[in-house]
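Exam review. A common question shows you a sequence with its structure tokens and asks you to describe the fold in words. Practice with the pair below. Do the first one on your own.
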Amino acid sequence: MMKSIVITGSTRGIGYAMAKAFLERDCCVMLNGRSEESTRGALDALLQLFPSDRMAGAAADVSNYESIKHLWDDSLEAFGKIDIWINNAGISHEQATPWQIPVNELQSVIQTNILGELYGTRVAMQGFMSQGFGALYNVEGMGADGKTHGVKGLSVYGMTKAGLHYFNRCLAGEVDHPHIITGALQPGMVLTDMIMDRYKDRPEDWKSDQKVLRMIASPVDDVAVWMADKILENDKNGVYFKYSNPWRMLKRMARSFFHRNVT
């Protein structure tokens, strides 16, 4: 049976790549961005590749609870059911110490990354309880492994992700339903707009860092395809799907070294 999937923050980056991967696997997908413009743009791009009856789009700000409730309602109206809900939306901040980051930026990161995932979890789980089935996946990020101290200037972003990791560990134990499961996704470092945006005012830093980043960061499409397959195959509660590992990084570094020496 065709699965219907909601992905918050799916107008770019790994959210968009996952939407494309699920559509390639004959699923129905609800695209979501913060603005009507971004949502429409992503939808129009995918409509060039996939049938219109398998996708829809709805703008929603994940830091606003009522907005997330409308996203559920719009998705249910579009597809009749929601099999999988993925809380993917998240933002970072400028790479700086906490006392240098503007207050409104601190608030936005915490509201989007923490409240956004809590709101999405609340709405999705209540919806799943009502319909009697469903799978919820929360995307974690840098900080979930407790190693954020190694990334200078991203302590606030890492704090939000470390908190979400704790939340997701607890969440799985709180689910007691034979047909509802939760899980977490750890894509690792992926070269998306979130990383690129940190260099928009630092072109010289990008010039010096890009070779290393391209070696250690995973290709976004590879991660999205792997995640989509894992999610569609899974029927267990409390799983963690972690893409990045030392072997994959070593393979990328080896390919980069080989390519550099043969060209």
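Now try the second one, then compare your answer with the model answer below.
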Amino acid sequence: MLAEDRRAYILKLLENRSSVTVTELSTAFGLSEVSVRKLLSCMEQEGLIKRTWGGAVSAYGSLQEFSHKEKEPVRLAEKISIARAAYDCIADGDAVFIDCGTTTIHLARLIRTGKKRNLMVATTGLNIAMELAEAEDISVIVIGGELRHRILSCTGTFAENMLRTMFFDKGFISGNHLTLEHGFTTPSVQEAKLKRMIMDNCKEHYVTIDYTKFGDDSLSLVAPIAELDAVVTDWRAPADVLAGLQEQGVRVIQGAEEPQPA
């Protein structure tokens, strides 16, 4: 494999994952780890990636936040598996908060069509509210505020004031990144504050996050690992990170890989 092919391979991996390791690249390329580190160093100097201890992450900064339209069509199988695992955590009669997001929209669809009823769902996500608008037997509370157009979510003082007096059995919180070192993070300071408030107001909270979001940090801390109840993820999530979460007392729930049609 030529050097340019190796660069392209690494960048392609980082389109779908938060990070790559020196060890896995060494195996993939048949190179020594010293040679891989030199390659990553060159790519960092060219502005293509950012090096980390033991590997590399995307060159996108901690403020990077993709829009709803950009995120919606990618990793559908993983998002659906997470949504199904999350739905299994809900019981009849629960008061549930569902965060905005392209994973949680699949959870809203399961709630709309599923057998569990006598539910009350609150959300800051316009896409979530519209999905549940068709289910007249499910109570829906829309948390209003300043609209963040790119992610279809309401934040700010109005949203915070509404949430201060509301308490939920379960909350399903979306986010951008999670690392064992720094915890659960998101690019927006306002979003981080609101997500933290929601977590505090839930008897149980579940972070819904796919495999690509492990191993890097966004700008704003939502909560350190020690303060998380549970993480719901897909079958492709890194085993070492999941083990680290469990060692710190976090419940890990993995969605199953769905068989592909023949």
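Model answer, second protein: The chain has two domains: 3-58, 68-254. DSSP finds ten helices and 15 strands in the chain. Full marks require stating both points clearly.
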